[in-house]
Every structure is written in structure tokens, then in C-alpha cells.
Design brief:
Strands 3-4-5-6-9-10-11-12-13-14 form a ten-stranded mixed beta sheet. It has a two-stranded parallel sheet with strand order 1-2. Strand 4 and strand 5 form a beta hairpin. The two termini are about 35 Å apart. It is α/β, with parallel strands linked by helices and about 350 residues long. The protein contains eleven helices and 14 strands. It is elongated. The mean pLDDT is about 90. Helix 1 packs across helix 2.
Length: about 350
């Protein structure tokens, strides 16, 4: 069985220094390499002008260099949002979205190839889970987009394909690297990680005391409603999930975001709004209402505009902070998993 090579781009600066020592190189080479990898965003060794050929050869032989290839880019004619389909080194495909806001550029990245969570209205989960992404594969979605757009990314949302807390250790390593002052140095406060509610890992994350925003995919305000939409609710009771959210706020001081996809006639009634008000009462939170993106493999439809506004008004009357997510890239397979799914379908025809 062949040895699995160390992934260069997933190493911290300290780990890179240790590797340089192991292969008989001076420690300063680690700093040079790290800068090429995480600041200058080099696509390969050829771009590293101050690294000697002998070291490049050692690295080529002994390490994996993660560099994602752009397979397809769709650009929205409505708002300039770009949707990227990337090929990983093993041929798997992942999606990312680049969104331009007045407060800066935001990239939504994937954390897994596929997903095992099975949420009923999501295209990402239809083929199941292939594998978790390495820290480098999460990073390089951002790096490749930065190179392509020639613009700085200031906000990162780990909310694309996959359940980030189902890839916990790689996620933590990714956060450490993307926020490292020697790298892109994105503030922890500008990072949002979503979860559909893996309770024990929400608690583990709270114990790390990071300053990132935790976004819970809620989608139903009662255990019954949630169970109908999200298979994970079979494993974790809603009370447990909300308790883990409270724990996260108490330990980090970071307000929780609840993602609530509005599905026409399923979870968008006045009664649903009342249930939601009761559920989050007294919690320091923000509710992001998301009119669901219809996908052809599922029968769900998005809520009507009047129902969305009535739902939001109900929350605001109870002094609950709520916004309706502005549709970005609606004309370009904007929702999670749609572009990858379409590409797979095309390939298999």
C-alpha cells in the first residue's frame, strides 16, 4: 500500500518549520513557502521564484500540493454573483459562491464532497456523502476565487455543500489557517459556520471559544416539523439543539444565527411563526429567513412573498431580529449543490 503524502497547504507555519527540519532545510524556508501558499496564493511550485530547484524537487516527491481547477463559472446577470465548480485532485467536484456586498466580498465554501444529512429540500445531499474536504481544499476554494476575481475576500461562510461539523477537525484547522496573521488574516468575526445541529460538536466548538458566528439550520420550530424536513432531528431533539445554542452564546458571547428556509405550505404559516417566537424567546439571536430554492428532484415550493413578509412581521412584533435573505445568483443555480448536481447529470447522460 502506498504511503499517503502529507498535504503541504494544510500545514500550519510551525508544522511547516518542523517539516523543513525533517528534510534538512533551513527554517526560514518555511516562512517563504508559507507566504507563497497562503499570501501570494501560488498555484504550483513554478510560481515560487525564491525557492531553490532542489527544495521544489523534494517537495514534489514527498508532499501533495492542493490546487483546485475551475471546471465552470456561472456569473449572475442580476447581481454579479459568481458560482464556481471546482475539480479536486481526486476528480471529485465541489461548489463555491462569490458574492459582492457593500461591506466587502463574501465567499461561501463547501466543507464536504456531498453530504449525509439528508435534508429534504437540499440538492447537496441527493448523492450522499463522498468524503470530507481537507483544510487545504476548503482554503483553496477561497484562494482560487481570489485569484480569479483579483479581489480580496473579507467574509467566509462555510455553508456550501456538506455539514461542517461532520468534518470537525479539518474545519478547525481551516479556521486556524484562514485567520492566521501570516496568511490571509481574515478575522474570526468574519467567519460563519453552519450546522444542522450535531449537538456534541456544537458543544466542542463552544469550548474552543472562537469568535466565529455559528448558524444553525433550523427550518422547523417544533420537533415534528423539523423531523419532517431534516432526518438529523431523529437523532437530536430540538430542546437539546437549542440548549447547545445557548451554551455557545454563553461561552463565546457570539449571537447565534438561525437559518430558516421557508417552504410554501410546510413551515411558513402563522402558527409556525408563533412556534418560532416561543422557541427562541429570550435567546440572543438573529433569524435569517430564506425563501427555499425549488429543485426538480423535490416537490417543495418557495413561500409566497406575502407569506414571507407576514412571517417576518410576526417575529419583529415579538422583538426578534429577523431578515429575509436577499436572493443572490438566483439565475445561476445559486442554491447549494445545484451546479454540481447538474454537471453530474450531464456527465451521466
Amino acid at each position: 500500500m502506498e504511503d499517503i503524502k502529507t498535504d503541504l497547504k494544510s500545514l500550519s507555519l510551525e508544522e511547516l518549520k518542523a517539516e523543513m527540519e525533517t528534510i534538512g532545510e533551513k527554517p526560514f524556508r518555511a516562512k517563504q513557502l508559507y507566504e507563497w501558499l497562503h499570501v501570494k496564493l501560488a498555484r504550483d511550485y513554478d510560481e515560487m521564484t525564491n525557492i531553490p530547484k532542489s527544495l521544489k524537487e523534494k517537495l514534489s516527491d514527498g508532499y501533495t500540493y492542493t490546487s483546485l481547477n475551475i471546471v465552470e463559472v456561472q456569473t449572475s446577470k442580476i447581481d454579479g454573483t459568481k458560482k464556481y465548480l471546482f475539480a479536486l485532485n481526486d476528480g471529485n467536484l465541489v461548489e463555491s459562491v462569490w458574492m459582492k456586498y457593500h461591506h466587502g466580498n463574501s465567499v461561501c465554501i463547501s466543507s464536504q464532497v456531498g453530504c449525509r444529512m439528508g435534508c429534504r429540500f437540499c440538492a447537496s445531499t441527493i448523492g450522499g456523502l463522498e468524503r470530507g474536504l481537507l483544510p487545504s481544499e476548503m482554503l483553496d476554494q477561497i484562494y482560487a476565487i481570489s485569484r480569479d476575481t483579483k479581489e480580496r475576500v473579507s467574509n467566509v461562510v462555510v455553508m456550501g455543500t456538506g455539514e461542517p461539523l461532520d468534518n470537525f477537525d479539518n474545519l478547525l484547522k481551516f479556521i486556524a489557517l484562514i485567520t492566521d496573521e501570516n496568511g490571509l488574516n481574515i478575522s474570526q468575526r468574519n467567519i460563519t459556520v453552519s450546522t444542522c445541529g450535531i449537538v456534541e460538536n456544537m458543544r466542542r466548538l463552544a469550548d474552543k471559544n472562537l469568535q466565529i458566528t455559528l448558524a444553525l439550520s433550523l427550518h422547523g420550530a417544533t420537533q415534528e416539523k423539523r423531523r419532517a424536513l431534516m432526518p438529523i432531528a431523529e437523532k437530536y431533539d430540538l430542546d437539546e439543539v437549542i440548549a447547545a445554542c445557548k451554551d455557545y452564546f454563553e461561552k463565546t458571547g457570539r449571537r447565534i444565527t438561525f437559518e430558516y428556509s421557508l417552504v410554501g405550505g410546510v413551515n411558513d404559516t402563522e402558527e409556525d411563526a408563533e412556534d418560532l417566537c416561543r422557541l427562541v424567546s429570550g435567546l440572543n439571536c438573529h433569524i435569517n429567513l430564506i425563501p427555499v430554492n425549488p429543485i426538480k428532484e423535490r416537490s417543495y415550493v418557495e413561500s409566497q412573498k406575502k407569506d414571507v413578509m407576514r412571517f417576518k412581521d410576526k417575529l419583529e412584533k415579538k422583538h426578534i431580529n429577523a431578515t429575509v435573505r436577499r436572493e443572490m445568483g438566483r439565475d445561476i443555480d445559486g442554491a447549494c449543490g445545484q451546479l454540481r448536481r447538474r454537471h453530474h447529470n450531464k456527465e451521466s447522460q
